[in-house]
Structures are given as C-alpha cells and as structure tokens.
Amino acid sequence: MTLFERIIARQIPADIVFEDDQVIAFRDIHPQAPVHALVIPKKPIPRIGAASADDQALLGHLLLTAASVARMLGLAENGYRLVMNHGPHGGESVPHLHCHVLGGRPLAWPPG
User: Fold this and answer.
1) Residue 7 parent element (H or E)
2) In what order do the strands lie in the sheet with 16-19?
3) Which residues contact 19 (CB under 8 A, 6 or more apart)?
4) What span, in angstroms and rounded, lies between the C-alpha atoms of 97 and 107?
5) Of these residues, 30, 36, 86, 98, which one is catalytic?
6) Domain map of the chain by residue range?
7) Is 98 noted as a catalytic residue in this protein?
8) Is pLDDT above 90 for 110?
9) What Rg do the C-alpha atoms of the chain give, in angstroms?
C-alpha cells in the first residue's frame, strides 16, 4: 500500500482541501512553493504512463479538479503550475499518479 493509499484510507493524516468519490486533494508536507497541493485519483494508478484508455474520464476529472483546487487556493489570478512526475528521472517519489498544484510566487522555467 502506497503512502497515498494510506492517506485515502485515513491511516495517515493529511490537510485535505478537496475530496469527492474519484479524487482527493491535500497540501504537500514538503511544499516547493508557498502553495503546494497534490491531487490524486483514489484508483491506484502507479504513474501517468501506466494509465490506460479506460482511465480517460478519470484523468480528465483529475485535471479539472486540479484547476478547481488552484482556484480554491487563490492561485487563479496570478497563475500556477500543474506537474506530473514519471519515473526516477522525472522526480517520481511515490508510485501513485498525482498532480502537483504549485503557486503563490513566480515559478522559473525550465523547472529542473
């Protein structure tokens, strides 16, 4: 069971900012920006490259929820970044698909 599955199951506490039947969003415990939340599907998909065509509706819901969470957290006016990591070189640390919502300051490019 991944760390995120344990958060979904309420075995580990989290600062939850949104939840519905498909996804959950919570503040990152090691924020990389003044505002840093994670939006994760409740279905355990290891990473974006492991998603299938059957996950299309869930992935759309995940992205729309990430935008909604950004608005809820006050990021819409000045902008924000959505990030998904895939594999060790991509910065993946938990093998459960998740979208980072980052904002609250200007974000540099390129990100790495």
Assistant:
1) helix 3-8
2) 16-19, 23-27, 35-41, 99-103, 80-83
3) 25
4) 22
5) 98
6) 3-103
7) yes
8) no
9) 13
